[in-house]
Amino acid sequence: MENKGYDTEMLAFHVRLLSQMSRADHYPFMKMILEKGLKEEEYQEVLFLLHTLHNKYEDQKEEGLLDYTSLLIHFAGMLNMKLHPDDTIEALRKEGMYVELMEEFKQIIIKDRYVETRFPVKAR
């Protein structure tokens, strides 16, 4: 059998993920993981990042903070290079994972894009 860039460890991981999915359209994040070819270790790193950021978000929210831009920057900077932050946020939100945090991130991105279009920075 020809090896098409998949090692057996990654293939076994992908089969386990697929077996958990009854319909791929209900699992956009899992679908993204498969399409981008993340290995199990990379997937676990993303989950750890999300768990850590969610805990920080809950702590900051409890302290009364209203701006979570630093968490979004941390997320974008530490996210696996195979994944795009915007697509990952949307996929996680749709899949029902860390929804409140993903909504915060989405609102920050929308606000920043609005500011950029309303008040573009001119090159000198």
From TrEMBL:
It comes from the Bacteria. SUPFAM superfamilies: Hypothetical protein YhaI. This is DUF1878 domain-containing protein. Pfam families: DUF1878 (PF08963).
